[in-house]
Design a protein that fits this description.
heterodimer, A: 11 helices, B: 261 residues, mainly alpha, 0% strand
């Protein structure tokens, strides 16, 4: 893929008013929910068989709690990535684009690179900001080394993996949304489909009885993908490995993009 | 009257309206039936158990509301996407009447499909719940002829209608479907998840206030028994959603008058 295709995609994105707003919303919404969670969790939860408050007994996942805003911020990412393609269909620019670059696969590859890259940047920014905002707040809330919560450092492997993984999570959500946007070509339909695909199986994973819950937690893009934020194994942890969970989301995103590639080649614009 | 007819015509000629209406019913009934089919009961021989079987037979609104939100946002924003709004305002310079007519048409269509969705959900899921152990003495079969049950089922239709009107208001304020849907999901599905009873994300004291003050308070209209996790009464909850809807429509009306189209 030539640099010209990517530059064209970047120019189109920059000139879209929704780009700035939705990426700003991604960071803002992430920080908002992370803040609410960080100030409201307390150390009362403890591991089974432990006296509450005894040193080393807490089983709260301070990293996961601090990054929980990502689940809110993904709404901004989903809107951004869907609009990156549906806005071209809304205005008709897509016909100009495909006239200038008749090899449609390249257009899609250019969009994947630029949209994925921007989502990754925004995601990493949001995750880092949420981490640095939430950790001191929770520290002040009683999550201190004497209670079994050592100060988290970005140089620790699980912490770095959770923070960088949150950025990767948002990048994959962006690619999923881009793929669905190409397939349905309509902003409202695309945003609703993506958010439905993310949130509804996630809710079902929360409210269903034990037997059916596991299936939804393992294979739904959101609960599986967010497993990458886990640094403490708890009884209520999503039953999938941290990287395997992100892999499930990657498969969803890849499936959407393959579908997008096929329909883009076959359909009239 | 001719204004209503104009909005009626536009409502049905927008691509996706028909699908939206059908999806509200299919998604709500489908998810309710699924929940009812896989759900188990906590009741024992002694007759304990505090599940609200009426709530359990209307749970599909989790998914149905997504279609409702989209429908409201599309009705509020599609004219801005095509530029038709300028023709509309040239024909009817009293802009707030246009908003009122849109709200009336959307409200009627939504009330019809919302009620269809809630009654169908209830009727489909009751036998499923009973075969899953929701039986007397802990769970006497609820009857539509009793006040709380009928209120919950009709109230679910009202909940969906108010949510659609809120989405219409947000759509007319933002004038962009993507933004309106995103905001609406942030106001409904996200509190539903983050403040779910027993959610690890926030302590119950905070979660209760989220369930009381966000638009999802309206779902309280489905409650037919007091539980430990009850956050707000049925009518008070619906009133909270009403407040959101009225505020959004008033803001939309005010902006319509002030802004260039």
């Amino acid at each position: 893929m030539s640099g010209r295709v990517m530059r064209a995609e970047l120019t189109k994105l920059r000139s879209l008013p929704s780009t700035g707003w939705s990426l700003l919303a991604t960071v803002g919404l992430t920080l908002l929910l992370s803040y609410v969670v960080a100030v409201s969790v307390d150390t009362s939860g403890s591991a089974p068989g432990c006296a509450p408050g005894a040193p080393g007994c807490g089983d709260e996942d301070v990293i996961l709690n601090g990054l929980s805003g990502i689940a809110f911020g993904q709404i901004g990412i989903a809107a951004f990535a869907a609009l990156a393609i549906t806005s071209e269909y809304a205005t008709g620019t897509i016909r100009t684009t495909l006239t200038a670059m008749p090899r449609r696969g390249r257009v899609l590859a250019g969009k994947i690179t630029v949209v994925g890259g921007l989502c990754l940047l925004a995601g990493l920014g949001a995750a880092l900001a949420a981490f640095f905002l939430s950790q001191p707040l929770m520290h002040g809330n009683g999550f201190v080394p004497e209670q079994g919560y050592p100060i988290a450092s970005l140089t620790d492997e699980p912490v770095a993996r959770a923070v960088i993984g949150s950025g990767l999570y948002l990048a994959l959500v962006g690619l999923l949304s881009l793929g669905i946007g190409v397939i349905v070509r309509h902003t409202a339909a695309a945003v609703t489909t993506v958010l439905g695909l993310l949130f509804v199986p996630f809710i079902m994973g929360l409210v269903l009885p034990e037997s059916a819950r596991e299936l939804f937690q393992r294979y739904s893009p959101m609960s599986a993908g967010l497993a990458i934020q886990r640094t403490v194994e708890r009884v209520d942890s999503v039953p999938i490995g941290v990287w395997a969970g992100l892999g499930v989301l990657a498969i969803w995103a890849a499936a959407a993009l393959i579908g997008a590639f096929v329909v883009l080649q076959r359909r009239d614009a | 009257m001719s204004l209503l007819r104009a909005e009626w015509t536009k409502f049905w000629s927008v691509r996706g309206t028909r699908w939206g209406i059908i999806l509200v019913v299919v998604l709500t009934v489908g998810l309710t039936a699924f929940f009812a089919a896989v759900g188990g009961t906590d009741a024992t021989e002694a007759g304990q158990g505090d599940d609200d079987v009426v709530v359990n037979s209307l749970r599909g609104v989790y998914l149905g509301q997504l279609a409702v939100i989209t429908l409201g946002a599309v009705v509020g924003t599609s004219e801005y996407a095509t530029g038709l709004i300028r023709t509309t305002f040239a024909a009817v310079p009293r802009r707030r009447r246009v908003l009122a007519a849109k709200a009336a048409v959307l409200g009627m269509a939504m009330a019809a499909s919302g009620l269809l969705a809630s009654f169908a959900s209830f009727l489909v899921s009751q036998p499923l719940l009973q075969s899953n152990g929701y039986v007397a003495p802990a769970y006497p079969p609820p009857s539509l002829a009793t006040e709380p049950v009928l209120r919950a089922v009709i109230g679910t239709g009202a909940f969906l209608t108010l949510l659609a009107l809120l989405s219409l208001g947000v759509g007319m304020i933002l004038r962009r479907a993507g933004a309106a849907i995103s905001i609406m999901v942030a106001l409904t599905l996200v509190p539903l998840i983050a403040a779910e009873p027993g959610s690890p994300l926030m302590p119950e004291t905070v979660a209760v206030w989220v369930r009381r003050t966000t638009p999802i308070a309206g779902m309280a209209i489905q409650q037919t028994r007091e539980r430990l996790d009850t956050a707000i009464g049925p009518w008070a909850g619906l009133a909270v959603l009403c407040g959101w809807t009225v505020a959004a429509l008033l803001a939309a009306g005010w902006l319509l008058k002030r802004r260039d189209a």
